[in-house]
Amino acid sequence: MEITARTIISWDEYFMGMAFLSALRSKDPSTQVGACIVDADNKVVSNGYNGMPRLLNEAKLTWNKGKDLDNKYLYVVHAELNAILNSRAGTDLRGCRIYVTLFPCNECAKAIIQAGINEIIYYEDKYESMVETKAAKRLFDLAGVKYRAYSLRIPQISF
């Protein structure tokens, strides 16, 4: 295969691909989310996916959206937070950007802002009408954090 300018993927395509590969590690039966944090030199700083906290016996927790303690939302660490927490100790995330397969919630928005990440590139915003997503966007706007939808340049790449 001959390499041409049309076959070389962009940085956005490359890093969003990594976010999607990370999402495949998630055991969540309904929503697998992945994240990839990249510095200004286009070096991968960290990856993450939505999953249970490490060292827990996952068989004793649930992936259901049930009531009371039988609700995955009480236990799951989101992909963005996992990526922040999985970065090497002492790594400065200020000025980095994060690629996520799903627009961050308000809780992850706070962590992204606190970490100093200044741009979010997201694939999907399926919860845009939810208050948590609206709050996340408000937080990003107030903090001056840019966010933009990922745009696919090469149609042969599909996630």
Walk me through what this model shows.
This protein is α/β, with parallel strands linked by helices. 28% of the residues lie in helices and 17% in strands. Strands 2-1-3-4-5 form a five-stranded mixed beta sheet, sandwiched between helices. The two termini are 22 Å apart. The model has no long low-confidence stretch (mean pLDDT 91).
Instruction: Tell me the span between the first and last alpha carbons.
Output: 22 Å
Count of discrete alpha- or pi-helical segments spanning 4 or more residues: 4
Given as residue ranges, the uncertain stretches (5+ residues, pLDDT < 50) are none
Shape label:
globular
Order of helices and strands: HEEHEHEHE
What is the number of beta strands? Answer: 5
Gyration radius over CA: 16 Å
The largest β sheet comes out as: 5 strands, mixed
**Estimated helix fraction:** 25-40%
Structure summarized in a few sentences:
The protein is α/β, with parallel strands linked by helices and 159 residues long. It is 28% helix and 17% strand.
Task: Give short descriptive properties of this protein.
about 160 residues, five-stranded mixed sheet
Annotate the secondary structure layout:
Blueprint: H1 11-23, E1 34-38, E2 44-49, H2 79-86, E3 97-102, H3 106-115, E4 119-124, H4 131-143, E5 146-149
Parallel strand pairs: 3-4, 4-5
Antiparallel strand pairs: 1-2, 1-3
Helix pairs in contact: 3-4
